[in-house]
Amino acid sequence: MTRSNLRTRGLCLISMVLVVSLGCARGSSGAEDTTPARQSAKRLELGLRLSDGRWLELGDLRGNPVLLFVFATFDAASQASLKPLRPFVQQHPEVLVIGVAAQPRASQLVEAWAFALDPPFVVGADPYGKVENGQTVLGHIEQVPTYILYDAQGYEIDRATGLLSEGDLAKLVQPLPSATD
Hints:
The chain is of the alpha/beta class. It has helices at residues 3-25, 76-80, 82-91, 106-117, 166-172, and strands at residues 47-50, 55-57, 66-71, 96-101, 122-125, 146-150, 156-161.
């Protein structure tokens, strides 16, 4: 495939993602976007190369609830999602928030994205391209941003898409047992 064809395909993909994400950002609350609890019986197993070069196995985080923020570096809704995520991370220290870039060549772009936007959580990418191809336990990511909540045992318990408010994020993690349970 020529460089010109690759560039055209890349621009088409970016355009499609922007159209979908902007259309979804106009929707109402994130509560309508959630799917039934425990979509799959598969536990969270995924390796990420973090923006600082370290390797993180998400399966090693068992014992802690995890909220995956699946985003694209070029997506406006993903960038806007950082505004409600900042206070959410501070108000919910019991939930580990991990950013996962889901786009072609994500590992090449995630370091610059993290440097420029300084998210209050670690961000990384699957260097093998399996996340954006739907070949991981995350399944096919229909749109970004997508939030996937895992319980302390590593099972998915909820999922929401689109631009969520701080209140929507708090509702998303409500099914988690409190520290006193």
